[in-house]
Every structure is written in structure tokens, then in C-alpha cells.
Design a protein that fits this description.
The protein folds into two domains: 174 residues, P-loop containing nucleotide triphosphate hydrolases (Rossmann fold, 3-Layer(aba) Sandwich), CATH 3.40.50; 167 residues. With 352 residues, the protein is α/β, with parallel strands linked by helices. Strands 2-3-4-1-5 form a five-stranded parallel beta sheet, with helices on one face. Helix 11 runs antiparallel to helix 12.
Length: 352
Amino acid sequence: MQLLQFQNEFPFVVNALLSAKRAGRLSHSFIVHSDDSTLSADFAISLAQAVSCPEPFDSGDACGECQVCRQLENRTYSELFALAPVSKSRQIVIGKDSDEPDTMRWFQSQFHLKSVSGGGMKIGIVYDADCMNQEAQNCFLKTLEEPPPSSLLILLTPNPFTLLPTIRSRCQNILLLRNKSVYDAEKMKDVLPVLHMLSFGKADISVAETCASELICISGKLHDIAEEKIAGKWKKFLGDTKNLESAGQKLIEKRFDAAVASEYLGMRNSFLSMIHAWFAHVHMLSQGIPLDSLANPELVSGFKIKPEDIDPKKAYRSLRLSENLLQVLQWSVNGDLALREFCLNVALGSKK
């Protein structure tokens, strides 16, 4: 994995970083702003390789073949430290002390321990950095102001403006925007036919209720899917808990439950985003925007929707209703009831 693999998509970013690396002027801290979490995570590792590789190319990029490069790619590098939201609230907290794992104080303490790799670079990656609460951000600011020697700090976030201005000012910003969402194809195959029926089916209560029931059913399965997905990733860790003391078992179980909750929230947000994106795309088609100019044409391309078959007024009204649905579900409301009301308003929109 090398920075040059991102050359075609983000040439300015890659060239600027490699130029700074060759000149010895590369920053010690970065904010990677991306709307694709997989992209930002891979880019962070490539940047870490470029900084840490003992035998880089003349371009400044990592060789990709040495032990350090391979360990970073496999996430087994001993000086690679990661911090991510693992609580059910999806917050990164400051923590009581440096012994409390998955907290900001624990994360920072790793950079002040003696290196086990003979003075190699220490790499710190904060995933979903916008999940740091105010206290954790203020604590992290001290590390940015006085960075540990031979260290690289990378913050990954889709929303950098939730970070303190003082944090943003001390990091170099890397913009990796694709301006599109990435949806799970397996989930799409169930959701999209329902949304198509809701948009183009008969304007009656039975259609609204059928669509609502389907969406509620899909939404209700998300937690079980999240638990199954995390259980697969954590299979080894959960098996090892049998050999741990009671306190160790409880810690692993607590982190597992938090990981499930975090995965569920991410899947739920993606599910709701897909609903909004569908109606946004239908509205854009009604305004004459070509299919291949849409951010996610795969959402609507399978239905061969003709612009002349779309009622522009209903398309616009449905889009506004989907925006309102997302806002309503941010509060402690009955999600099933909100989906039912939404489907009823969309299906009967042409009658109002």
C-alpha cells in the first residue's frame, strides 16, 4: 500500500505530501477529511508507511515491501496506536487515567512509553475524531501543542468542523471527498424496491402501510445483523475470554457490546441516508439531471425511471419529507411510528 495508489483520484494531495516529505517539511499531525471511512483509513496507513519506511523511493513514497511497511499494512506494527469510539454513545472520552483503555488519556500515554522498535516512528490514528467530546479534545490539544518526538498523529473524520478550531489550526488538512455515499449492496436490494413502490405506486393507504411495514422490518433486523457482524470479527477474542479472570471477561464483554452498539448506529444511519438519497435522486431526475451525473446512480438505475413519469411537485415534497424524517429521528421518538407517518405522507402526497 503506497500513496501513489491514490495518485489518479487525488493527484494534488499526493504530490503535495510527497514533495513535503522529500523536503523534510512534512507535518507531524493531519486531519483527513473524507466521506468514505474505508478510503480515509487506507490513506492514513499509506501516509504512515511513507513516513516510517526505512527504505523509501526517491519520490518519498514507501517501498511497500519492507518489514515496517508490511506490518503497518497488516496493522501489526508495534508502534501503531489507534483510538476509536467504542462506547454505546459513540463518544471518545478523556478517561479516568492512562490505564483505562480506549480513552484519550490511555491513547496519549502510549506515545510517552519507551519505544520497543529501537526508536522507530510512533503512529497514532484517531478514527471518527468528531466523536471526541469536548473534554477529550481539550486533552488531546496538549499533545498537538507539544508533540512527542518521532511521532505522526492522524485524525480521520467526515465532519472536521466539530473539532475545536485550535485542533484544526495545529493540523494539516487533507481533503479526500468523493461526494457520494457508499451503501451496502446487500441492504440496497431490500430497501430500494420499497422506496420505488412508495414513489411510484398507487396513492392509497394500503401501499403506505405495506411500505412502512417493510421498512420497519428491515430497520428491526439491523441490530441482529450488527451483532452477527461484530461476533464474526471478535470470535477469537470472545473465545479467549474463557481463560481470563472475571474482570478481564467483563471488560471484553463490555467492549463487545459497545462495538455492536456502534456498528448498529452506523448501519441505522446508512439505512436512513439511503432513504434520503433515493428521494433526492428522484427529485434530481425530475429536474432533468442525467442519470450519470447523480452521486449514486446505482440507487435508481435498476428501475429504468423516466423523468416524464415523475411528478416534480410530489418528488420535491417527498424529498422534504425525507429530510424531516432524518431530523425527527435524531430525537427520542418512536422510530416505527415516524416511518409509518413518513410513508403515509409520501404515498398520499399526490392527493394533497
